[in-house]
């Protein structure tokens, strides 16, 4: 197979040794080209170029943001995507049950390629951009923005940085006194008191250490999207639903402050002024409106054997 190894060398877990070992392992049975991302959006252009040149698989060694960019370059083409964990959290790679170590994950990837384990999966689309696992709106995105302000610490601080950013956002960087947007569903219903919404293509939402943060078990790669909207940010109810998500998540989904919608093919989020949002862990700023849809079989993915 023709393989592009797409590397983000600035990602938290990427090392020079891992890059060399992975390239050598892939090159044993495949024709491998190496490319490195150097700026935002670069991975999308590299992936598009690889697909146009007849590459069979783009292997992404980087974080979830690099993976999202590559997916946007490959969606709708015959070229497949294969993730390797190289970031601080590696949400999508862990959802696929890949090993945390990128070299170990490469061994499993090679087995998957030998077995022909390449299948089409559905993706979400928000304002024309594909997302692989979720979009966060409101408080969630404000938290991600605070993490990205301290991006240089991600390689060293890991989950402690997210915990600190969560507390800092709660205390100083998000207005919890009023709703920020309304969620309009295709059936005509409206959730008019949104403080935070996560639209998921997969589950778990993220991981806290080794524990999954379980929001939406209905969100799978072969079903439409799931929308979870938090309708109040009073401290005690909010802490209860967060604690539930670290378990089965059943309490969260049954909570009176949660609007839970599985199998959503389209929805619109309209703000009461600009609101923050993030796509696959990449903060994209503030916006007044987001249009979502689900696109089945949008991307060919190498699945672990």
Summarize the structure.
The chain has about 300 residues and is of the alpha+beta class. The chain contains 10 helices and 16 strands. The chain has helices at about 15-25, 40-50, 65-75, 90-95, 100-115, 140-150, 155, 160-175, 235-245, 250-255, and strands at about 1-5, 30-35, 55-60, 80-85, 120-125, 130, 135-140, 180-185, 190-195, 195-200, 205-210, 210-215, 225-230, 260-265, 265-280, 280-300.
The rounded Rg comes to 19 Å
The largest sheet is: 14 strands, mixed
Flag low-confidence runs. Answer: none
Whole-number count of domains: 2
What general outline do the C-alpha atoms trace? Answer: globular
Roughly what is the average pLDDT, rounded to an integer? 94
Structural class: alpha+beta
CATH architecture of the largest domain: Sandwich
Helix and strand string, N-terminal first? EHEHEHEHHEEEHHHEEEEEEHHEEE
Annotation field: number of helices: 10
- Beta-strand fraction estimate: 35-45%
**Number of beta-strand segments:** 16
Name the helicity range: 25-40%
Structural description of this entry:
The protein is an alpha+beta fold and 305 residues long. It folds into 2 domains: 2-116, Rossmann fold, CATH 3.40.50.10330; 130-294, Tumour Suppressor Smad4, CATH 2.60.200.40. It contains 10 helices and 16 strands. The chain has helices at residues 16-27, 42-52, 64-74, 91-95, 102-114, 139-149, 154-157, 159-173, 235-245, 250-254; strands at residues 2-7, 31-36, 57-62, 80-85, 118-126, 129-131, 134-138, 181-185, 190-194, 196-200, 206-208, 211-213, 225-230, 258-264, 266-279, 282-302. The strands form 2 sheets. Strands 1, 2, 3, 4, 5, 6, 7, 8, 9, 10, 13, 14, 15 and 16 form a 14-stranded mixed β-sheet that branches. Strands 11-12 form a two-stranded antiparallel sheet. The chain is globular and about 55 Å long. The two termini are 18 Å apart. The mean pLDDT is 94.
């Amino acid at each position: 197979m023709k393989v592009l190894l797409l590397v983000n060398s600035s990602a938290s877990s990427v090392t020079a040794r891992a890059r060399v070992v992975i390239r050598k392992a892939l090159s044993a049975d495949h024709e491998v080209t190496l490319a490195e991302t150097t700026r935002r959006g670069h991975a999308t252009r590299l992936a598009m170029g690889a697909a146009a040149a007849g590459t069979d698989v783009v292997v992404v060694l980087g974080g979830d943001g690099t993976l999202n960019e590559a997916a946007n370059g490959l969606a709708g083409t015959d070229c497949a995507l294969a993730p390797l964990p190289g970031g601080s959290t590696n949400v999508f790679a862990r959802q696929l049950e890949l090993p945390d170590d990128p070299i170990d994950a490469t061994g499993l990837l090679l087995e998957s390629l030998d077995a022909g384990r390449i299948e089409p999966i559905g993706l979400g689309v928000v304002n024309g951009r594909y997302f692989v696992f979720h979009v966060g709106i409101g408080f969630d995105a404000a938290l991600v923005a605070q993490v990205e302000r301290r991006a240089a610490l991600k390689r060293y601080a890991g989950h402690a940085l997210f915990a600190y950013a969560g507390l800092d956002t709660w205390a100083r960087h998000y207005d919890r006194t009023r709703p920020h947007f309304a969620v309009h569903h295709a059936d005509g219903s409206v959730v008019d008191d949104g403080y935070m919404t996560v639209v998921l293509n997969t589950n778990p939402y993220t991981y806290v250490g080794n524990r999954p943060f379980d929001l939406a078990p209905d969100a799978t790669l072969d079903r439409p999207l799931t929308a979870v909207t938090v309708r109040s940010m009073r401290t005690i109810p909010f802490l209860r639903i967060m604690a539930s998500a670290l378990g089965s998540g059943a309490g969260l989904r049954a909570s009176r402050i949660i609007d839970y919608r599985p199998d959503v093919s389209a929805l619109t989020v309209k703000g009461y002024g600009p609101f923050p949002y993030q796509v696959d862990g990449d903060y994209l700023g503030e916006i007044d409106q987001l249009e979502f849809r689900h696109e089945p079989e949008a991307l060919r993915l190498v699945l672990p054997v």
